[in-house]
């Protein structure tokens, strides 16, 4: 009997605990929902304020960028007008430099052509001598072979 009462008491405490946890869960849900409902308009207003602030900042940076570009363009035009006075001197300098380099190039090219022609003549002469020597060696070898053949024929006879 006592054991049954203890089991019954334990089950009753367990149900009460579950009931308390369920009620606490409902309260937390209610508070979270209420908090979200309160936060939504605040988040929207904060978003709008941030968007307006970002737009103003972007416009300000865009104006600064445009003025900077305009100043850079003005400076570039000043440099161009200042440097345009040097254009004739630059062209004259380039022409002199190209002319001097062209003469150096032509001299080196002429020397190269002369060396090339000389080397060709030397190689051609060398080949002529080599061919002449080969023909002479071939002639003597063939002559010797012919003599050898004749001797062999006479020996056979």
How would you summarize what this structure contains?
GO terms for molecular function: mRNA binding; translation initiation factor activity. With 157 residues, the protein is mostly helical.
Observed structural traits:
2 helices, single chain, mainly alpha, 157 residues
How is the main sheet built? none
Structural class: mainly alpha
Percent of residues in helices: over 70%
Order of helices and strands: HH
Q: What's the pLDDT, averaged over the residues?
A: 94
Distance between the termini: 153 Å
Rg computed from alpha carbons, rounded to a whole number of angstroms: 55 Å
Q: Could you tell me the strand content as a percent range?
A: under 5%
Note the total helix count: 2
Are there runs of 5+ residues with pLDDT below 50, and where?
Answer: none
Organism: Atrichornis clamosus
InterPro entries: EIF3A
Protein name: EIF3A factor
Coiled coil: 3-34, 59-149
General description of the model:
It is a single chain. The protein has 157 residues and is an all-alpha fold. The protein is built from two helices and no strands. The protein has helices at residues 2-84, 87-156. The longest helix has 83 residues, at 2-84.
Spell out the blueprint of helices and strands.
Layout: H1 2-84, H2 87-156
């Amino acid at each position: 009997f006592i054991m049954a009462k203890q089991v019954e008491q334990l089950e009753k405490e367990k149900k009460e605990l579950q009931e308390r946890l369920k009620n606490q869960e409902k309260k937390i849900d209610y508070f979270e929902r209420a908090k979200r409902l309160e936060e939504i308009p605040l988040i929207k207003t904060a978003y709008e304020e941030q968007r307006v602030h970002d737009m103003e900042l972007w416009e300000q940076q865009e104006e600064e960028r445009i003025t900077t570009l305009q100043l850079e363009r003005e400076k570039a035009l000043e440099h161009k007008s200042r440097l345009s006075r040097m254009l004739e001197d630059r062209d004259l300098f380039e022409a002199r430099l190209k002319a001097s380099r062209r003469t150096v190039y032509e001299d080196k090219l002429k020397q190269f052509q002369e060396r090339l022609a000389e080397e060709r003549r030397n190689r051609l002469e060398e080949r002529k001598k080599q061919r002449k020597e080969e023909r002479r060696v071939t002639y003597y070898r063939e002559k010797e072979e012919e003599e050898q053949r004749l001797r062999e024929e006479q020996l056979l006879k």
